[in-house]
Amino acid sequence: MHKHPAYRLSALACLVLLLVGCATPQRDWLNNPLGMADQTHRFDGPIGPPVSNADADTPPPTAHWQSAPVTTAFPFTELLPSWNVNVGEASGVKLFVRTRDAEAGEWSPWLYTGSWGATTDAGKDTTDFEHGEVKVDYLVLDRPADAFELRIVFEHSGDESEDLAAWPQVRKLVAVVSGTIGDPQGRDIIVMESKPDPRAAYDPIDLAVPYRTQQALPAALRSRTCSPTSTSMVLAFRGADGPTLENAERIFDAEYDIYGNWGRAVARAGELGFDAELARFRTWAQVRDTLETGQPIIASIRFREGEFPSNPMSSTAGHLIVIRGLTAEGDAIVNDPAFREGGEAIVYKKEELARAWLGHGGVGYVIGERVVAPADGQGQ
Asked: Are 64 and 49 in contact (CB under 8 A)?
């Protein structure tokens, strides 16, 4: 394989959030590390393999794209990737990341973070090293890094592999890095209050996201499909009213035997032509700002017994819901797919949901408007 010159990194297109305010000197109100910040990096596309980068000597033909090293605004310990990809039946893509240790200046090995389409197993066994591990959806480091690189491997096993148009194409590539920072002076960041806005009254928001329940799926899938069901609700809101089961089959991660892979949910929306990505939410103001643009949020939550009294579930180690609006008091209006009845437009207290969501990383799926036609065979 030959290294292709990196596409230009778009003007860091980044939003960095610093949590402020804490209940004690040791821990933040939302149980996030004190001073947690995020920076979002978006890469210009489309990204595809040029003819000069294709190597047909070894079946299947492969090619790759690699970013230039990206130096981050602060040391990070987590990296959350997502992408929008178009692939054919005989083609696929794999994503790898490596990071530079902030203290030693050494680069990690290339770590496999996920794939889309038909791919070989080459490289997929490298998911950890001495100072970090890919935990299904994202990379977690036990020592801060100050830079990263991304690599996309393109594969094609069809007879038409010499036709560049038949190869996969990555329309959008996003990496969110997160870490704790100290003194924010001199850094290009936005500082927001971490707690929900204490005002007593708001202008209410309620987006017309249609409700679906995971309990309508086959019995063997009902406890496993909150992510594709939530994704299907927002896809239907955006005009792609396809079957939940069909979306679940595409989102299913055979490598980990789960339906809850965050990146695969976003990739499914991407192949249907939507502008989709994973994001980190750290503040209630950020939630309100997003909803006010007409954008619902699919939120990844978890909580222990007694932590979320307004939720009919007593606890969960991981669950996905759709935040569709806010009441006049600022509480969340939610479509919760867990329930056969009563899950549509259910109201969850803002402090409780903030702790269950923002307090556990604040990961959200953001599925925007359709920007291109669906990939072949994926029309909805």
From this structure: yes
